[in-house]
Amino acid sequence: MPAVYPPKYVRNILVTLQSRGHQAFLVGGCTRDMLMGRMPQDWDISTSALPEQVMEIFPNSEPTGLKHGTVTVKVNSHSAEVTTFRSEGSYSDHRHPDMVSFVGDLTTDLSRRDFTMNAIAFSPDGLMADPFNGVSDIEKHLIRAVGLPRLRFEEDALRMFRAVRFSARLDFDIEPETLEAIRLKAPLAVNIAPERIREEIEKTLLSPAPEKVFMLIELGLMDSFLTCRPALINDGGCLRKLPKKALNRWTCFCVLLESCGCIDSIEEFLLKLRLDKRSIKVCRSAARMLMEPDCPNTPVEWKRLLNKYGVDTVSCAAVCGDCLREGCYQKQLKAVLKSGECFSLKHLAVTGNDLAEIGLCGKELGEMLLFLLDYVMEFPQFNKRELLLSLAQGTEE
């Protein structure tokens, strides 16, 4: 029996379908999570009802994937995906079925699932269907493909990344035959959109065992993004010490990849994975700071870095630096930020308009602003308007 039960609105959907003469079951990740005592984030229902019948029973539903038999049923502010029992044809693109056929039995529907732990179903009255021994694999902490592993990965190559991600998230091992099939079918990863690969990498990086991201490299799943696959890869144990923030873990991951020769350019690597521009900029700049031979040791050095790169980037570098170099950068940076001392033009006690009023303009004005900022970063007690204006005019005492 499950350790966690579905909320009332999900039970109502199941019972309503059943009362109209249709079979209905909870399936997929929600059943796995329920058995493991985890509260599912999403609720998926498989039914013998056709999509049109589901929409007729639930007028507020939306046809979010009619081609594949999926309807999103909305109950007040909640929703659940309801999909008709189906079988699938060949996958010529190694990602999506060329055709979908609706079927009348649950076992056929479960047979198309990726892993046994995700091929378990619960009826409205709590009866369990487990035709592929998924419960046993959950108890053994094993990720095992449904049926022939090679066939499952030929159908959808993204399943190979999901296996590693589930391993990192759930602390499960990948069953040997399934693992060998991933190694064999890894070249099929070229058929996956970079955005989907990036999502799987990031979910793995943000998991309780982020170091398992290196399994993706060892198995050959990231060959198209790397310059080489080294024989010995840093296990990335430091990734686990980082806060669960995407920028921190992407930055550390990139530094480790560059240090072991897997990539030549962090920016190029992240561009291939379609990371957003801001994340690429922060990761690239933070990594550049980390690779400098000399570390910042004084408040002035920290303020100059803050001025050059910004708070987000320097904070990211400090967090990663503490992990990679076992330093105390966060403590030093926090002290500088807490001091409130000036490190940018917007905090300078004079503005460009102030300098224009005393006759400065153009390049001369810009150079004077930078000079005053540098002066104030070194002597923060002198960040006072009158004093800086007198300095600019050359009348300071």
Task: Give a short summary of the structure.
The chain has 397 residues and is an alpha+beta fold. It contains 19 helices and 11 strands.
Attribute tags:
397 residues, alpha+beta, 7-stranded mixed β-sheet, two-stranded antiparallel ribbon, 19 helices, 11 strands
- The level of helicity is 40-55%
Strand order of the largest sheet: 3-4-5-2-1-8-9
For the report, how would you describe the main beta sheet? 7 strands, mixed
Between the first and last Cα atoms, what is the distance in angstroms?
83 Å
The mean pLDDT is 92
Rg (CA only): 28 Å
Shape: elongated
- Residue windows where pLDDT falls under 50 for at least 5 positions: none
Strand segment tally: 11
Please tally the helical runs, counting DSSP H or I stretches of 4 or more residues: 19
Task: Provide the structure class.
Answer: alpha+beta
Order of helices and strands: HEHEHEEEEEHEEHEHHEHHHHHHHHHHHH
Fraction of residues in β-strands: 5-15%
